[in-house]
Design a protein that fits this description.
By secondary structure, the protein is mainly beta. About 0% of the residues lie in helices and about 50% in strands. It folds into two domains: about 45 residues, no CATH class; about 130 residues. Strands 5, 6, 7, 8, 9, 10, 11, 12, 13 and 14 form a ten-stranded antiparallel β-sheet that branches. A four-stranded mixed β-sheet has the order 1-2-3-4, with no helix packed on it. Strand 12 and strand 13 form a beta hairpin. The chain starts with a strand and ends with a strand.
Length: about 190
């Protein structure tokens, strides 16, 4: 069953919305927009490429996917290997919700502060828009008595790792990692 709604107008280029609740049409006219709502399956389909809207009340993007997080020490990962390295995300509008799961099989020889690169989207450039990232599991780490916490700063595509101490937050470094470290994180941040 196909329902077509058209605004009352004498202008032939008036945009039309085609609501098709059964099957997707083979093609659309230049002035038509397909809105697919699969009512039987409870699905709403967004286009494969975002169609950005300047209206702040318009949801113009939804995406689910995977990414490959990379643990770095001092910006490098020389000799590092993984037993497990997974990233999952859901992007709704300009908000990205994610999970990262990293299990090392060798921490390698790189030294320095720890970051995770490979996030699926760059964060917003607005100062103060960075988001918190929280560990849900940390195992086989040295000198860390509490769960890790992390930060994605403005205009960033990496996560900086920290842990709590009696004097405040301390950078997580190669000295804290072992060849069998396990780190699981969840978080949310805003994109540009």
């Amino acid at each position: 069953m196909k329902h077509t709604f058209q605004a009352i107008s004498t202008v032939p280029t008036t945009p039309r919305i085609v609501l098709d609740i059964s099957t997707e049409p083979a093609s659309l006219a230049a002035n038509e927009t397909l809105v697919s709502i699969m009512t039987a399956a409870g699905q709403i389909k967004f286009p494969g490429v975002q169609n950005p809207s300047s209206d702040v009340n318009t949801l113009d993007d939804y995406e689910e996917g995977t990414f490959t997080p990379n643990l770095l020490f001092g910006g490098s990962a020389v000799g590092m290997t993984y037993t497990n390295r997974l990233g999952f995300y859901t992007k709704i509008g300009n908000s990205v919700f994610f999970t990262i799961n990293i299990t090392l099989s060798a921490k390698g020889s790189s030294v320095g502060t720890a970051t995770i690169s490979g996030m699926p989207f760059t964060s917003s450039s607005v100062t103060g828009s960075g988001a918190g990232v929280y560990s849900t599991l940390v195992s086989s780490v040295a000198g860390v008595a509490a769960l890790l916490h992390a930060l994605i700063g403005a205009s960033a595509s990496n996560v900086s790792l920290f842990y709590g101490s009696a004097t405040g937050s301390v950078n997580f470094t190669d000295a804290n990692a072992t060849n069998t470290s396990i780190m699981v994180f969840v978080g949310m941040y805003r994109t540009a």
